[in-house]
Amino acid sequence: MGRLEGKNCIVTGAAGGIGLETCILFAREGANVLLSDISASALERAIAKIKEIVPEAKKIETKISDVSKEADVKAMVEHLDSWGGVDVLFNNAGIMHADDADAIDTPEKIWDLTQAINVKGVWFGSKYAVLSFRKHGKKRASVINTASVVALVGSATPQLAYTASKGAVMAITRELAICHAREGFRFNSLCPAPLNTPLLQDWLGDDVVKRQRREVHFPMGRFGEAIEQAQAVLFLASDESGFVNGTDFVVDGGMTKCYITPE
Ligand code: NAD
Predict the structure, then answer these.
(1) CB hemisphere CA count around 15 (13 angstroms)
(2) Degrees (nearest 5) of the Cα angle 248, 29, 238?
(3) Of 24, 85, 95, 183, which is least packed with CB atoms within 10 Å of its CB?
(4) Keyword NADP on this protein (predicted)?
């Protein structure tokens, strides 16, 4: 307990999946947490859930923001000025659009929408986080950006706009990690494998073939769980990871290291 005691944290895409599990852990570990998401109703459900399962939670607030809108992201980060500034930002919001496809069939508007949320959102978040760290004289701070294993390995079930966006997240993160290292601001990307969250599971639906096409590639024989990603985010957010900077932190059950899966 207390691994984030006294830290002010923002989580984007906080209303579900990895984001919500992370907020629960952050609250349990003594952090003040701002839950940010585009969906007001989902945010209300999320905060109610956290208050129920972590009654000892410190400051927990919500802020509706669309990470693709610079003014929203600025207001989100500046919301923490009255808390003493941000210490940890988890740039986690992202989309994987149903119409995202291969080089031939991906509509340009889906390409642009995906880059606007997944890439520009991470840029805006990082920009205002750095400004806040400096404004509040932070000597150590952590930004975690959610990428994906598709930034590391190619997939024959393509979602080209999504893959491009996650490759960009990884490259941006690496560069920011180097640029700001002497200021004590760490940047790491999280690379989850396919998970049991609505983002993927709603898209797979009841399509058994589509599901098995993915499941066969898991050495451990299953999709990952959001909580398993959240545990990694907690480590990257805390001072325990003080010398971890610029990594592509892979949480994938061995998927990207595997040639042939066990029978
Ligand atoms: P999720 O769909 O459960 O949650 C994503 C959240 O982001 C939702 O609450 C949604 O309302 C919010 N959101 C969407 N657009 C937004 C915007 N413009 N501004 C602010 N919030 C917005 O997804 P998840 O599975 O928890 O995914 C979280 C992150 O992990 C995403 O970046 C995703 O690309 C990445 N990821 C997911 C998987 C997977 O299999 N689920 C695998 C690798 C990476």
Answers:
(1) 17
(2) 35
(3) 183
(4) yes
Active site residue 162: yes
How far apart CA 163 and CA 132 sit, in angstroms, is 30
- Element holding 215 (H helix, E strand): helix 208-215
From 23, 36, 37, give the residue whose CB has the most ligand 1 atoms within 8 Å, as the site to mutate: 37
Across 96-125, b (16+ Cβ under 10 Å) vs e yields bbeebbeeeebeeebbebbbbbbbbbbbbb
Q: What is the pLDDT of residue 212?
A: 87
Residue 188 falls inside a structural domain: yes
Place of tokens 């009654």: 55
DSSP class of residue 167 equals H
DSSP string, 197-225: SHHHHHHHTT-HHHHHHHHTT-TTSS-B-
Number of CB atoms found within 10 A of residue 195's CB: 21
Q: Is residue 133 part of a domain?
A: yes
Query: What's the full length of the chain, in residues?
Result: 263
Residue 66: domain span: 8-251
At 258, is the pLDDT very low, low, confident or very high (cuts 50, 70, 90)?
very high
For residues 167 and 162, give the distance between their C-alpha atoms in angstroms, rounded to a whole number. 9
Q: pLDDT digits over 196-209, tens only? A: 887 788 888 888 88
**What's the whole-model pTM score?**
0.97
Domain-embedded: residue 260: no
Q: Which of 162, 185, 218, 249 is flagged as catalytic? A: 162
- Read off the pLDDT band of 1 (50, 70, 90): low
CATH number at residue 161: 3.40.50.720
